[in-house]
Design brief:
The structure holds two protein chains of two kinds.
Chain A lengths: L4 H9 L3 H23 L2 H17 L9 H23 L9 H10 L5 H7 L2 H10 L3 H12 L4 H8 L3 H20 L7 H5 L1 H4 L11
Helix pairs in contact in A: 1-2, 2-3, 2-4, 3-4, 4-9, 7-10, 8-10, 9-10
Chain B lengths: L10 H8 L5 H13 L1 H18 L18 H10 L11 H14 L3 H23 L4 H11 L1 H6 L4 H22 L3 H6 L1 H6 L3 H6 L9 H5 L12 H10 L6 H6 L2 H5 L2 H14 L11 H7 L5 H7 L2 H35 L1
């Protein structure tokens, strides 16, 4: 029977590093996945995760109880965000720093490679990762936390310190964009996407620049 | 939030619907729309499929484990451990215990090598100062020169009269007894240990060196001096004297030699240890053998010896002591500073 988070936290607060490391083993996969998908840079993501765990250990006394997983993920996402912003400041001119919305549109309008070719070349998972990459960061993070990592609306609101309404709207926009992205390569996708794939070709309402 | 044209059903509502995060009224509205509008139906279906795919997205393999190592969080670990109740009992440690733990934690943090070095340097410094205060160290120089002739002078050295008093009596007594036979001159001094203390005069005599008595030490310490194997006797003392160890004074005895004389085991130990530490300051070397000396005891003739000792040598010793103290103090401060810094960094 695994020890509860609370018991491990209690021990860690008394200087039991092994107890804290058990918590790390419990959540490092999640932290790494989120940080990596947010940053798309293995080195930066590893730094973010390591820094986050050290910060978390240092701040353990300020953890007021409640959901440790959410508390930890808030540190991870904040740290990753900070790195993201720092990276943008460093390279304001690089292509990667184009506004996400524009990047997303670029993906949609890139006809150099036919959907079929593209579908053949990529695995479904790769396509999904690509779709996630195409999202603005705020939507990407909410979508990752919700659909990939399984956090609830409440938890996400707590992690990101935003209202639940904002969680819902970001998640909705993110999902729609991923869906639209996938719909362009429907040959490789489940039937649901194929049936009315032409419908997806129409101007997508979720392309609001303000999203 | 974007609304699908010609339809009051927003993407957000559909998304929330798929998560079951809608009111009963909203749910009915969505389901009605799905039944009536194939576009809405497609959207709901594809959104549901998208969510499913996302949920099944394989996790990204860890590049390595992110488990923390002690050194990454050493400082905070110390803090946590210090703040934690004593491991012994479940009960919370009292304030005193807590304070002690914090104090302990404070000293435990930082670079242990620097901390230990600083502590050692500080201990040596304190030792030297104490020796000085007692009169032993400084005495060598001053005493020897002056003392030789005038006891009072000898005292002048550094030792505070009071301290001497305290020390001397204890030590003196034993010596006096043993000595009695040996040196007459000392006799007076010894006889009235109390006086001795009070009176500087005695000191000089004593200084002669309880230490010297120790034959072995003497030889070593004193470069050329042939230590008389026997020792106790004045003769031996005299030989030693030339070396002019710091120990001569009764006080000195207290530290280095005294012990021996008194024959108190504890003291002997102290002396021994002192001797080791002192080793740095050349002058001290002699002390090591104090123990041996003790038994023998000393000759008080020191005076003679002292007299014999040349003034200049004493002066050198005195300045050597001063230098040693200064250097050790500086060392202690520097190492302590480095250690404090290493705490912060660590």
């Amino acid at each position: 029977m695994a020890e509860s988070d609370e018991a491990l936290i209690h021990r860690a607060r008394r200087g039991d590093l092994d107890a804290f490391n058990q918590l790390i083993l419990r959540y490092q996969n999640m932290a790494w996945s989120v940080a990596y998908r947010l940053l798309r840079d293995p080195d930066a993501a590893a730094d973010a995760v390591q820094d986050s765990f050290i910060k978390a250990f240092r701040a353990l006394d300020s953890f007021q109880g409640g959901n440790f997983k959410s508390w930890l993920m808030r540190i991870v996402s904040n740290t990753a965000y900070d790195l993201l912003r720092a990276r943008k400041r460093r390279a304001t001119d690089s292509l990667e720093d184009l506004p996400m919305e524009q990047e997303y549109i670029t993906h949609l309008t890139d006809r150099a490679e036919s959907p079929h070719e593209r579908a053949e070349r990529r695995e479904l998972a790769e396509l999904l990762e690509e779709a996630i990459d195409s999202l603005p960061e705020d939507q990407r993070l909410v979508l990752l936390l919700s659909d990939v990592e399984g956090y609830s609306y409440d938890e996400i609101a707590e992690i990101l310190e935003i209202p639940i309404g904002t969680v819902k709207s970001r998640l909705s926009r993110g999902r729609s964009k991923v869906r639209d992205y996938l719909a362009r390569y429907s040959e490789q996708l489940p039937m649901a996407f194929r049936r009315n794939s032409e419908v997806a070709q129409r101007p997508m309402p979720s392309d609001d620049p303000g999203a | 939030m974007s609304l699908i044209p010609q339809n009051p059903i927003s993407d957000e509502l559909l998304s929330a619907y798929l998560d079951g995060a809608v009111t009963e009224e909203e749910r009915r509205r969505v389901e009605r729309a799905i039944a009536q509008d194939p576009v809405i139906a497609w959207q709901v279906e594809t959104l549901r499929e998208t969510i499913r795919l996302l949920q099944e997205l394989p996790s990204i393999p860890l590049p390595r484990s992110f488990v923390l190592q002690e050194e990454q969080v050493a400082d905070i670990l110390v803090h946590y451990r210090a703040a934690a109740p004593a491991p012994s009992g479940p009960g919370v440690a009292g304030p005193a215990g807590r304070l002690w733990h914090r104090l302990w934690a404070f000293f435990q943090a930082g670079n242990p090598a620097l901390r230990n070095a600083a502590a050692a340097a500080a201990a040596l410094f304190v030792l030297l100062v104490t020796l000085n205060a007692v009169g032993v160290p400084a005495p060598p120089p001053a005493t020897s020169t002056v003392p030789a002739s005038a006891p009072e002078v000898a005292m002048a050295s550094t030792a505070s009269p009071q301290e001497r008093e305290t020390l001397s009596p204890a030590f003196m007594a034993p010596r006096s007894e043993s000595m009695a036979p040996e040196a007459m001159e000392q006799a007076p001094a010894a006889a009235e240990p109390a006086l001795a203390v009070g009176a500087l005069a005695e000191e000089p005599q004593l200084r002669s060196r309880a230490m010297e008595p120790a034959p072995q030490a003497a030889p070593l310490a004193s470069s050329g001096i042939p230590a008389p194997g026997g020792l106790a006797d004045e003769a031996g003392a005299s030989d030693l004297i030339p070396l002019a160890f710091a120990e001569e004074g009764p006080e000195a005895g207290a530290f280095l030699v005294a012990t021996p004389n008194t024959a108190e085991p504890e003291r002997a130990l102290e002396v021994a240890s002192v001797g080791e530490l002192a080793s740095e300051p050349a002058a001290v070397a002699a002390s090591a053998e104090a123990e041996q000396v003790s038994s023998a005891s000393l000759d008080r003739e020191p005076r003679t010896a002292e007299t014999g000792a040349s003034g200049p040598e004493n002066g050198l010793l005195a300045s050597a002591w001063l230098w040693a103290e200064g250097i050790l103090l500086g060392l202690a401060l520097i190492l302590g500073g480095l250690w404090l810094r290493s705490r912060r960094i660590g």
